[in-house]
Design a protein that fits this description.
Elements: E1 6-7, E2 17-22, E3 36-39, E4 54-57
Antiparallel strand pairs: 1-4, 2-3, 2-4
Length: 64
Protein backbone atom coordinates (compact mmCIF):
# COMPACT_ATOMS: atom_id res chain seq x y z
CA UNK A 1 0.00 0.00 0.00
CA UNK A 2 1.34 3.43 -0.90
CA UNK A 3 1.81 6.57 1.10
CA UNK A 4 -1.12 8.98 1.40
CA UNK A 5 -0.73 12.08 -0.75
CA UNK A 6 -3.77 14.17 0.24
CA UNK A 7 -4.51 15.34 3.76
CA UNK A 8 -7.45 16.95 5.53
CA UNK A 9 -7.33 19.76 8.10
CA UNK A 10 -6.24 18.37 11.47
CA UNK A 11 -4.22 15.49 9.96
CA UNK A 12 -0.55 15.30 10.94
CA UNK A 13 2.15 16.06 8.36
CA UNK A 14 4.09 12.88 7.50
CA UNK A 15 7.28 14.78 6.59
CA UNK A 16 8.83 18.23 6.68
CA UNK A 17 7.89 20.25 3.62
CA UNK A 18 5.72 22.79 1.90
CA UNK A 19 2.09 21.87 1.33
CA UNK A 20 -0.54 23.56 -0.83
CA UNK A 21 -4.31 23.40 -1.23
CA UNK A 22 -5.74 21.31 -4.05
CA UNK A 23 -9.32 20.85 -5.23
CA UNK A 24 -11.22 17.58 -5.36
CA UNK A 25 -10.33 17.16 -9.03
CA UNK A 26 -7.03 19.06 -8.99
CA UNK A 27 -6.03 17.74 -12.40
CA UNK A 28 -8.98 19.54 -14.02
CA UNK A 29 -9.47 22.39 -11.57
CA UNK A 30 -7.04 25.21 -11.11
CA UNK A 31 -7.26 27.06 -7.81
CA UNK A 32 -6.54 30.77 -7.84
CA UNK A 33 -4.18 31.79 -5.02
CA UNK A 34 -4.12 28.49 -3.09
CA UNK A 35 -2.94 28.63 0.52
CA UNK A 36 0.58 27.28 1.15
CA UNK A 37 2.08 26.27 4.45
CA UNK A 38 5.47 24.99 5.60
CA UNK A 39 5.11 22.21 8.16
CA UNK A 40 7.45 20.03 10.18
CA UNK A 41 6.81 16.32 10.59
CA UNK A 42 3.96 15.85 13.08
CA UNK A 43 2.49 19.37 12.71
CA UNK A 44 -1.27 19.53 12.19
CA UNK A 45 -2.64 20.81 8.88
CA UNK A 46 -4.62 24.09 9.22
CA UNK A 47 -8.12 24.68 7.89
CA UNK A 48 -8.51 24.98 4.12
CA UNK A 49 -10.25 27.84 2.32
CA UNK A 50 -13.33 25.68 1.75
CA UNK A 51 -14.57 22.20 2.68
CA UNK A 52 -13.89 20.68 -0.77
CA UNK A 53 -10.13 21.31 -0.64
CA UNK A 54 -7.34 19.17 0.76
CA UNK A 55 -3.63 19.59 1.44
CA UNK A 56 -0.98 18.05 -0.79
CA UNK A 57 2.82 18.24 -0.74
CA UNK A 58 3.89 20.93 -3.19
CA UNK A 59 6.12 18.64 -5.29
CA UNK A 60 3.21 16.20 -5.76
CA UNK A 61 0.60 18.90 -6.48
CA UNK A 62 1.97 19.99 -9.84
CA UNK A 63 -0.19 19.29 -12.87
CA UNK A 64 1.62 17.47 -15.68
Amino acid sequence: MGERTEFEPGDKAPNDGEYTEVGEASFHTEINNPKRVKLKKGDAFPETTNKDRKWKKLTKARVH
